[in-house]
Amino acid sequence: MNAREAVVKSVDTAQESLISLSHGVHSDAELGYEEFTSSERVAAAMDAAGFSVEHGTCDLETAVLAEFGSGPLTIGICAEYDALPGVGHACGHNIIAAAGVGAAIALAPLADELDITIRLLGTPAEEGGGGKIYMMDRGAFDGLHAAIMVHPAPYDAPYMPALAVQHFTVSYEGRSAHASASPHLGINAADALTVAQVAIGLLRQHILPTDRVHGIITDGGDAPNVVPSHAGGSWYVRAATIDGLSDIKPKIHRCFEAGAIATGAKLTIEEARPAYSEFRNSEILSDLYVQSARELGREFPADGSAGPMQASTDMGNVSLAMPSIHPLIGIESGGAVNHQPEFTAHAIKPSADRAVRDGAIGLAQAVVTAATTQAIRDELLSTAYQASA
User: Nearest to residue 127, comparing CAs of 51, 35, 214, 31?
Assistant: First the structure.
């Protein structure tokens, strides 16, 4: 039995436990940096497979670092497990976690033969919290020659064309007053937010097609008969590249400043650190994954295109630091797309379970081929990531 066949056998042997992991994480539906049960499930699975495990690594309670092997070529496999507010696992991170664990478990018995080290990284808070970026800064990715993962979607694609994004919060401070008896004494913070949203709506005509801006109101005051003395929201601004954010962000900030000027409210803008970058796909590793996925019966666009989804991910920052892949693996979602509650329901159905198996095999087989193809191996070994570099 060759190494690629051994991967399939290992994943199939572990399939019941992998599906149990996927369904368990799905039922936990824990938000970013609160994935206590989900991260424990991942850590326990890696410990049972003989990996050395550190739970709570990098001063992040729900981060996991598990390692096996001692070969010079070190491959990182990222496992996400955070859910979304209100809609749970509408991005299928339960599938990501189980597929990543499955790939790591399948590669472990081959580590000596392939002369590799496998590092499973349980990365919390992808949905806006930047877990991977903090883990990179704190050394969890040091020594890696590549990082890989797979993400569910309504279709298969070789990669996700991710946009750069900056998350930020906005708050206005005004002055309360009786809204009927003495409204002239108040400064309406909610009006300031309304002015800003109108300004952003008008600005949309003049931004690039790849730019995005969207947000929610999280605070609109306390009572209808009290002039709101406080108001605020949470916003995202996106651009094709992280450098492009520097062009659109000042324009969005001016829209919020307009609200403050119009009403007299005091404006505070707090940018969440860190910004997410665009994604740079490793074509060599991506081709290896696609080859394996096709052998499993998965279909990709003949022209190699990535499909319509343009989201953002902290895996983008990883991809600028080392060769990385983030392919999309299709599940039958009944027409639903990521971040819809209907997608949540389909993330534990038979096609999602198949995606766990196929994703694990596709990732692991890509590593096998990369490790045993001298030109690819040498290229990966030429540079190892260091946080201080």
Answer: 31
